[in-house]
Fold these 2 entries.
Entry 1:
Amino acid sequence: MNLSEKPTHSLILKINGTDTILKIKPWTSLLDGLREYAGLSGTKKGCDHGQCGACTVLVDGKRINSCLTLAVMHDGHEITTIEGLGTLENLHPLQAAFVEHDAFQCGYCTPGQICSAVGLMNEGKVKTEDDLREMMSGNLCRCGAYSNIFDAVKEVINHKTGVLL
Amino acid sequence: MMSDFSFQRAKTPKEAVILLGLHKDNKVIGGGTNLLDMMKEGMTDSHEIIDINRMGLNKIIRNEDGGFLIGASVTNTDLAYHKEIEKHYPLLSKAILKGASPQIRNMATTAGNMLQRTRCYYFYDTATPCNKRNPGSGCPAKTGVNHIHAILGASESCIAVHPSDMCVALAALDAKVHIQGAKAEKIIPFVAFHKLPGNTPHLDNILAHDEIITGVELPANGFAKHHAYVKARERNSYAFALASAAVGYELNDNLLGDVRIALGGVAHKPWRNTEAEIFLKGKLPTKDNFRKAAEIILEGARGYGQNDFKIELAKRVVVRALEMAINNEVQL
């Protein structure tokens, strides 16, 4: 069957606060929709199978793997990517903490790590250091910067909640 | 590369089953976390994908009998952290939180978790035979890399295991499954939903092509006082079980009452053995009795080489869970 026979869908995603119209085929993942159609390449494709977390974005404030969902399923949803979290002049606290703690080497997993940490803070379930490790386990770092990622996220949680992990 | 397909949204369960029935390769999508994975591996053909996430099945409702009805689209996260579920069914919450990652749990649905496919390597590798993916082609796992495979209830056709943690708790809790069919609705026991491989390993469960799960019903007793979920795996987070146990029981004057034990990671379905549960009833909650119950459950277990260790591991997981349930200890 010719691929072009299947209808193109027109959907509206509120990406980083801006209503964005995407005209896509149904098999386009949210990840590909963001990178290839919305022009937002901050979200990274790592494994493309939900194992590494590099593609993590926030949908209505909740962190998900954008590689394992179809863009067409998110018509009307609010999507936040790394591009929506801060600016060069005014970094998001997690971005600043990642710089401060040198929480990366190559940086490829970093957008996913930071979006995941934002989602983690929205959830408010982390009470201990072990909780933090467990709740960041969906994000792999091939360079092994885990201890610094841990320190960066922990600092922001402590600063925000005033409760020391 | 995902196969090409059309997409539409069903408004009601009835509409969803009608749309499913229009083509053998029509599929419903919940969270999509396993379905898209399989599509990308080229394992499955899809004609039309039917989104069932906007049919109002994302609610958890209290029933008149004190139980709860969990909508099919309720996410694993929403279920695990639901205040009433945490309070009355902590075994279910704990089992869910031992599975997958926070991102996956935010997407994966209750029905989707039940319908996820095995993580047998050969099933996902289209270059190899697999009776589950391609009936009649053979099972390389039996003599191959099989350290994650079944030790109970397997067949010559298939030694794959069901990968869910949530389902192990639901089996222990004697949940029920609500199903919408083309003609009627039905309710079946959770333990009768998944099936053993037999000579039809391509079928994981009893759901017909034109049926969907609409919800899961929890009976009133959630064994909140004495329960535990113990999971043994190859790393301590974001890994499937080598063996797991969901247990719950009543304890009156230090004697065991109603006992539930379900195992995960050991069979093609969550494994219940009522003989072991009956054995424990009326007995003291001692390690010796728990070990005897574990021996009953694993009687007849068979390893395939690399997974021989699972037989002893499963026994120890059962004993550990039963011991931890005395004081509701939590596995870290």
Entry 2:
Amino acid sequence: MKDILAELKKKAAEILPEVSYFICYGSGFDLLHSAPLFVKDKGDIDRLVLNRFCIHNLTSYLPPQKWPPGWLLEPGEKIGLVLKGCDSRSVIHLLAEKAILRSRVIIIGLPCWGMIDVNKLRNRIDINRINRVEQDKESIMLFTDANEVSADIKDILYDKCINCQYPNTLISDHFIGAKKEPDKGVQPFGKVLELERMSLLERSAFWDKEFARCIRCKACRNVCPVCYCQNNCLLDTRVPHWIKERVDANSNRWYHLIRAFHLAGRCTECGECARVCPMRIPINLLAMKMNSELFELFGFRSGIDVNIKPPLMTFQLEEDKL
Amino acid sequence: MPKAIMQDKLNDWLDSIASKYQLWAPQDKDGACLLSPYTPGAPVNLKCRPQLSAKKALFPQTECLLKYQYHKDKSKPEETELSISAANPNQKTVIWGIAPCDVSGISFFENVFIGAGYQDTYFKTRRSNTLIAAIACQHAESTCFCEAVGGSPVSAPDADLLLTRIDHEYVVEALTNEGATLIDEGLFTTVEEAKLNAMQQVKEAALSKLSKPFELGSLPSVADKFLKAFESPYWKEATAACLSCGICTFVCPTCYCFNITDEAQGMHGQRLRCWDACMFSTYTLEASGHNPRNIKFQRYRNRLSHKFSYLITNNNVLGCTGCGRCIKECPVGIDLRSIISHILAE
Amino acid sequence: MQSEPRIIGFLCNWCSYAGADMAGTSRLKQPASVRIIRLPCTGRINPLLPLKALVDGADGVLISGCHPGDCHYREGNLYARRRLELLHRFLPFVGIDPKRLRYVWVSASEGQRWQAIVGEFTEQIKKLGTAKAQ
């Protein structure tokens, strides 16, 4: 990963004159976290970081409605960014939806070996005392003053990274590093299947329990790369009064159902909604269920091909499976 | 004189408290650690930092202020009668097992809701019926900075009880007379000199675990520095990645903004007070369509300046307890500590 | 369960609404269980509308539009068909019985068909019992 980082810095310096700013990863509040970094000056390129904690989907910052204020672009100006394979699906979907212009982004692609879910490390070591991390493709070593553990990467990856089918950026202007082979195992809708084995009542109880925790901070909506209505979001309006102010399991369920339907055929399975949730609710399962049904009905997978129209934006007079 | 209780007796103690009080305790719930109502026998987790602060026990996210009902007599269609019943949340409550930073959060709320200017009946009723059992924090996280904002991980002067864990035992000090009534004689043992020394050592060790990311200086000078930094271009840089979500405000032990709405259903309804967040763009949206804090850096600047400047000027308190939740839960890793350091140095 | 279930009907103005009207004027007997909401086209139906009805405690939702190919606006019901099928398949995932939702095609001349559908669907909902308001 170190050689890729060096190459990434070189490439970033190269494209920086062409773009207004470059979105990438910098160090986070401790060694187990990275954070999005916005680079305008060449001097800041040294702050770039690339490790197993660069989970954020930087596509979230691409739609014009979400451009950071103070970082707004003039017509014709460009954004540069670095994208993992899964994140590039969001870009492809935004392009298919014509929500962004291809000519205004410069994408640096790279291979990805999966990102580490810090929550899966909690039981192994005191994650608040880590003072050194060593990582390679297969394993990771964590050190505290008193202790050290090594872990097999496969056991601590984010769920979405297990059996990743798109480890290489699917759309890019510059690709650095050698492409990685997709994983062999197939498990695209795994957790969804698990829930489907429950009875109707069990599932209802499962979601009641999960939604009772929701505090409606709206982080799931705001981080979502394909949620870009910003201030015009239905969830913020009082007229019509779609959603109650009250925060309880029922009202929260409705909140998440509204989101699920607005993501139908649009979710690119980056899993950011579930990652950012401070209450650890697996919200992404709702949109994944939508995706699994759309795959079954129309053979559609979002964010793979710019030229395929999302199935709910089109129809056939004679449908094969309806 | 402090008493001690063995770890395996904790549940017995809690069961006995729960028989007389509504009891809140930190518990694991499906991958999240939450301060929630205790059900007898449920395992508590004293090693976690609950995702939400203790404010929710005294200032619930959804609070019903009153209920109303319209009555109509069919023989007199032109007349409508209205009956209103106000809530009176006077249930005896114990908040158990919270860290000193959360206790400071509750003390902070007293400044706002039962201070000199305004008395909030609902908060006041709850607070005066609530006892707090704090635990000396030996689990400082990488995001903690309570000492830097004038707190301490091992003392909670505003609590009623203070627990300190020594191996498999908890030493319990009663800080108030009401607190002492919670100590159930049968379950506790007396504490000898040696144990008191051990407790002191544990507390000192906890202090040494903390990092101090900045030197705050006197409160008025902090307030002044934040005011001077109002126009600083740094705010835009620091908040470029911000998503404008409500996590930092909702998890914060001192954020107290709320919104009041009437929710009607046919002939009856409720007046609700729900948490609001100044990080939402709709928070300052005016009826005219104008929004004085339309841009996220303005909102973030307001949130921090409120805590580190306006509150000092108006109430002479700092609006931050150093619990670090906003750093830990921020989806894009915005670190309040580095922003404060930067503003203080500017 | 109360004598009649509460079913919300979303009906297209150009076909099913007229069909239901025809069933009425032809004095075809049917259960008084459906509260009809008239819409310009099934393409108008945001899936959140039937979903909201179900979440808020309707016992059933019956949606009816023009036969595929016969849409007054040429293609509204073709979009609707995809959306409603997806809604139908999604409901059980969040614990709502999909049998409480049905979408059908009834033209303006099919008063008898409407009568049959309302009868069938009401029976089906009666078997499921009262829905709990979520």
